[in-house]
Specification:
- The structure is a single chain.
- By secondary structure, the chain is of the alpha+beta class.
- It is built from 2 helices and 13 strands, in the order αβββββββββββββα.
- It has one domain: Protein of unknown function DUF4465 (Jelly Rolls), CATH 2.60.120.
Length: about 200
């Protein structure tokens, strides 16, 4: 029984050790702060793509007739693209994000969200039309990425982001055969150890 408990514990640690916890970036505490260079939040850099010389804001969603969710938001009110990358250059996953059209652009604004790994696209989420409220987008189609791009499409291209949920690298899930072999290997080690003690 003790042997089975040891094997179960080892397999649990093996499969759960690489799972990372998520961070949620909510852009709270700024009444209207404009940035022309990137900012760092929760270990991630957020900014305007190089060569696009505009600015973006951390601002309350209750300001300037913005789509209101009652909290702070990130507002890109220009026709520029925003990027997100880990400050240390590591990989991460996009779990979810809330997006909306900014003031004056209306629901005709669409959005493209694209993930990249080593400068190669890993997937695209296309939203044809952002409504008056927030759209909750799941990003699990990207897998591990090291660069995330938000691009407003149509009109002035302005958009709003909130509740940006990012995690460390996705754990690779062992195949059943790998788990079985690991279990047999651990059982063999345990039996060898037991026989040496005897």
């Amino acid at each position: 029984m003790k042997l089975l408990s040891s094997i179960a514990l080892s397999l649990f640690l093996l499969t759960s050790a690489s799972q990372a916890s998520a961070v949620v970036i909510t852009f709270e505490g700024h009444s209207n702060t404009a940035y022309s260079s990137s900012i760092t939040r929760e270990g991630f850099d957020i900014g305007i793509v190089s060569g696009q010389t505009q600015h973006f804001h951390e601002i309350s969603s209750t300001s300037f007739n913005l789509p209101n969710n009652g909290t702070g938001i990130l507002l890109n009110d220009r026709d520029t693209q925003l990027f997100v990358e880990q400050s240390d250059g590591g990989t991460f996953t996009l779990d979810s994000v809330d997006v909306a059209a900014s003031t004056g652009n209306g629901p005709s604004i669409g959005m493209v969200i694209e993930g990249f790994l080593n400068n190669v696209s890993t997937g695209v989420i296309s939203i044809a039309s952002l409504g008056a409220g927030y759209t909750h987008s799941l990003g699990d189609i990207f897998g591990n990425i090291d660069y995330l791009l938000f691009d407003g499409i149509g009109g002035q291209g302005g958009f709003v982001l909130d509740n940006l949920t990012l995690s460390g690298p996705a754990a690779s899930v062992p195949e059943p055969g790998t788990l079985a072999l690991s279990g047999l290997g651990l059982a063999g080690l345990a039996l060898t150890r037991r026989s040496k003690k005897a």
